[in-house]
Amino acid sequence: MAAGLKTIIALSFVLAIGFLLVILSSALWHNFLPLLVVATYLLAPLPNWICGRCSNPDDFMESSSNAVIDIGRFCTGFFVVMGIALPVLFAHCGLIQVPAMIMSIVGGLLIYGTIISFGMFFQEEQDF
């Protein structure tokens, strides 16, 4: 699948909407705590990427365990769930308002979805 200029424009538009929602969730209610969601979603793909590079991509050894890849997926899943649970916890404790929580969660999911989509569209194919 070839990713072209239209894909880049669409992904940047969705990313801008995600950042706009998170920034507005902080600015409209004068509270900086929803901005922590951006940090969790920016850190979320890193363990998966690092553990994917550290694993042994050897085609001759199919029986090797994928423990490193599983650890990376677990840490990525932890960051994604933390990006959703953190605004819910803040709203439950009364630190942020419920509309700020909703905007923060939707914006964070848009940011993470854009990062994952960018990785899928612009993935290099390896030929041996």
Automatic annotation (TrEMBL):
Keyword terms: Membrane, Transmembrane, Transmembrane helix
Subcellular location field: Membrane
GO biological process: late endosome to vacuole transport via multivesicular body sorting pathway
GO cellular component, one term: late endosome
Bilayer topology term: Multi-pass membrane protein
Xref: PANTHER family: LEPTIN RECEPTOR-RELATED, RH04491P
Homology family: Belongs to the OB-RGRP/VPS55 family.
Identification of the protein by name: Vacuolar protein sorting 55 superfamily protein
Organism from which the protein derives: Xylona heveae (strain CBS 132557 / TC161)
